[in-house]
Give the backbone structure.
Amino acid sequence: MDGSSRTRSSTVDEALTSVALYQQPKLQERGLYQLRPECWSEFDPHFFSHFTRADMEQALRRASASRHWDPTTPLTPPLVLPPPLHQLPMLLRCPTVLALVRCVPHTAHLLS
């Protein structure tokens, strides 16, 4: 692993540690991260509009079970785009568009 990979990995680890607690794996299970209690106040169920219904329901169950999330907290409503643009978020799910977005930073130096 090169230095930049280690730096990137440590940055991700630092970010995870700042918002989550790691639970060590037991026997054949995987280790997992749980949101820190003080971070539940920032939980926004509208953010999950791009996840499946099952993922959203699971997140809401965990939030309710945490007893640190107040569902009456005013949240930002989801963004509703006008009819000509309402399908724009679907572009983020398109593998071709994602490949293009990943390609641009690597080829931008060729344009200058």
About this structure: The first strand starts at residue 20 and ends at 23. The mean pLDDT is 79. Strands lie at 20-23, 32-35.
